[in-house]
Amino acid sequence: MFLSALIPAFNEESSVSGTIAAIRQTLTGVGIEHEIIVIDDGSTDGTGKTAEAAGAKLLRHPANGGYGRALKTGLREAAGEWVVIADADGSYPTEKIPELLGFVPAFDMVVGARSGTHYRGSLFKWWGRKVLTMMVRFVTGVNVPDVNSGLRVFRKAVALRNLDRIGNGFSFTTTLTLAMLLEGHFIRYVSIPYHARVGRSKVRFRRDVLRTLQIVVVAIVAYNPIKLFLLLVQACLVIALGCLVLDAVLARGTHAALILAVMGGTAVLVFSLGLIADLLRRLPMR
User: Fold this and answer.
1) How many C-beta atoms surround the C-beta of residue 142 within 10 A?
2) CATH number listed for the domain at residues 2-223
3) Cβ–Cβ under 8 Å, residues 51 and 17
């Protein structure tokens, strides 16, 4: 195979050359023909010059457009049928790439599922990932060990078909995972260690989690809207039950029938909208 290695980089002058060298050494060592593309996402340091000096093909953004936008630029320029992505900060074990490649072409995407202390992080981050994982499982019906790992191999053609639905930020990997699962592609997860990054992280956890949750909701609407509306129906029924209990305690049931009628009607309306949305999704596009 011919493999395109994409490295999005924003102010990673201190680590990008080491990442390029590690990927080149790994792929050359197993005899895989490849290209290494660094997408300099509006860096204000010497990231671009350092990448060029290390022998990578360089693509530049005039300003910082985001992790996902950098990868989209790289995907459009990649020559390989298969693509591997890795961060420039040294946090991913690029020597594991041949192990991931061992599962293609049987699988359309192979993801390095992170583990270790540096991946778990703080308790807040751990809970945030748990919530995201539960939402992805709700959407897809599949248990996903690591939904947004930045080390993965996938078919370029599948990603290109979904570029309009994939986010420009750190939600790129999450949206790609959702798109491939909901389209019925086969994904394999391989356990990998996760190292401390070189330099300062560009991730803003609270901001990026909110954006990722937004992307997950959009993916539900695009691929499986009935699930979202069923969730809203359940919420209506829970609210109705809570109001009935509260009304029985405080007002001796005088408003019970009205509450039940309003929330029941709302649940029916929401469910009907869900059926319409699901029907529209299945109609052929003209």
Assistant:
1) 11
2) 3.90.550.10
3) yes
